[in-house]
Amino acid sequence: MSTYVERLNLGLGIVTNSLLLFLIETCSRQCIGRYKTLFTLFATYDLLLIHVQAIIDVRVFNLDITFSMYSKTFAETKWICPVYCAAFVVPFALTHINFLYRFWSIKKTMESSTRKLSK
Fold it and tell me: pTM for this one?
């Protein structure tokens, strides 16, 4: 059952991120510029993570307070699980960049509005 759910999740991820990339490319306005690039980066990296998940096929084993992770595909390789975990740090960094971009955009807009009102 869990394998079916995982495969369904991977398939839905590919479909929705591909649709998002298509809509960004065809339906978004040119005036959003860098924000469009940021969303494209998010969707592209999500597609990469989906493929990494499918290829590495990580399994988790829990026993009481012990937690371990191993790759079903690359069982003998010790470095693949740390690389897999490190790959999932990038979306957090992208989220921080997204919030900073929004903050700076709002701050710039408010500063220009304040200047116009003071004149």
Answer: 0.70
